[in-house]
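Pinned message: reference record for Nitrate ABC transporter permease
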Amino acid sequence: MTITSTAMTQDSTAGPAVTTASPAPSASGTAPGGKTTSSTRARLRTAVRMVAPPAVSLAAAIGLWYLVSMVILSPQRRFLLPPPHEVLTNSLLDKAHVNPMLEALWVTAKVSLVGFLFAAVIGIAIGVLMSRGSLMERAIYPWAVVLQVIPVLAIVPLIGLWFGYGMVARTIVCVIIAIFPIIANTHFGLTSVDRGMHELFTLSKASRTQRLVKLEFPAALPAMMTGFRTASGLVVVGAIIGDMFFAKGEPGIGTLLDVYRARLQSDDLIAAIVLASLFGIAVFAVFSMLNAAVARRR
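Predicted structure (tokens):
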């Protein structure tokens, strides 16, 4: 009994046992930095999914180019489509050839910018007029459609006869080609504003100008940005067409394309096409990023 009492006394007076437990592994079995690693891998997979398809298609296009140039075409006809490495070395990497192209591309870029600004201002104004009522829409919209469907090449001689063959004529061609998407999207955005918001502005006794600036324009901005993005690609096409047909003044990239075609300079012709295409892609990408930024802010 004495031994048992003593043991019980010692157990009751002893302090609590100290136990150290190792941290339990996470449910996924990863280390403490697993979330960061998984998010990095997810971003890499997303980047690969975005880059891989264009890279594969580009490689396939270059391979097809080599096939046609080196296999299908005979050596006597290979000047029609020189292989990519000859275009690169003879034109794009030769300052004597590429510098005139870059200067001409800068001229085309200025024409595109001026044409886009005029198309944006005029297109927004026409879209606002059309949104003021069904009568204005029925009076203006058919002519906007006519302006869109008329082949520009058919009226180029008339534009040259009226406005000369310089910068003004090139700008007019850009406006004619690029203005319709701006008109259509501006009109759509302004007429799609929520009716309840209109009633709220009516209760607040807002003026027409206040309604337009504070309600309709902000609501129509996503549709307008879509029109700007579409017009940005068309305006580059219009500038190149204007360069081809209105050769007075500084030569644009379209002027050089016509000269290279006439002289059968296939290397320079393909190089100029590549530069013009890259410029158009860059312009379209800029407006796509602006469109995405507007969508995120909303």
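Pinned by admin. Summary line: The first helix runs from residue 2 to 13.
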